[in-house]
Design brief:
With about 190 residues, this protein is α+β, with helices and mostly antiparallel strands. About 35% of the residues lie in helices and about 15% in strands. Bound molecules: flavin mononucleotide (FMN).
Length: about 190
């Protein structure tokens, strides 16, 4: 995979860059993948994904995260029952549950952003490794959080933000047309 950092391309046509740039780039070409092959994921790769998560920026560098890696079918099956939009877990080979560790929060209120950054790093690194992933929303839905906490036996200070389903892609998705110049404001709205 070739990752572009060619400034000339950006300079030539910044608005249509996301639509027309033919080079693969994780930010533009990662898509939510919800169907996976039966190929198993190496433990080293799962560790790498969590490692990528730990490189995310966080408020005051508080790093208020904890990760639960699930690679057992029976646990994945139980997580399917945790909420309404969990179908990706049917064929997922693994999932990483990104949790906030409220005992590590030093900058009140910023943990959602911090843990979201960590989760996004997981998805971008998954793309880099040829894996597909999708973010399954957990927080702030109380019922989903309670179900996930019960299944994974989370301690009371851990809040599950998301279940990220992971596997080798069994579907392909084109880069959508998303860049909307009308939403870009310079210096004031
Ligand atoms: C906060 C959040 C919650 C989401 N919840 C779910 C979910 O519960 N189940 C699911 O299949 N996808 C979920 N998604 C994935 C979105 O549907 C997906 O990102 C969106 O449709 C854009 O598609 P893309 O990721 O391919 O760019 C969620 C994404 C975010 C950011």
């Amino acid at each position: 995979m070739q990752i572009t950092n060619d400034k000339n391309q950006l300079n030539s046509d910044p608005i249509t860059f996301g639509k027309t740039n033919p080079m693969k780039n994780p930010v533009f070409d990662r898509r939510s993948i919800r169907k996976y092959t039966s190929q198993q994921i190496e433990k080293e790769q799962l560790d790498l994904l969590v490692g990528a998560a730990m490189f995310a920026p966080s408020a005051g560098n508080q790093q208020p995260w904890q990760f639960v890696i699930v690679d057992k079918r029976d646990v994945l099956d139980e997580l399917i029952l945790s909420g309404p939009y969990t179908s990706a877990l049917k064929t997922a080979q693994a999932a990483i549950i990104v949790c906030a560790d409220m005992e590590r929060v030093t900058r009140e209120g910023f943990w959602i952003q911090d843990c979201s950054m960590a989760g996004h790093n997981i998805m971008l690194e998954a793309y880099n490794l040829g894996l597909g992933s999708v973010w399954i929303g957990c927080y702030p839905r109380e019922d989903r959080m309670a179900n996930v906490a019960r299944t994974l036996r989370l301690p009371s200070f851990a809040i599950p933000l998301t279940i990220i389903a992971i596997g080798y892609p069994d579907e392909t998705k084109e880069r959508p047309d998303r860049i909307d110049p009308a939403r870009i404001h310079y210096n004031s709205w």
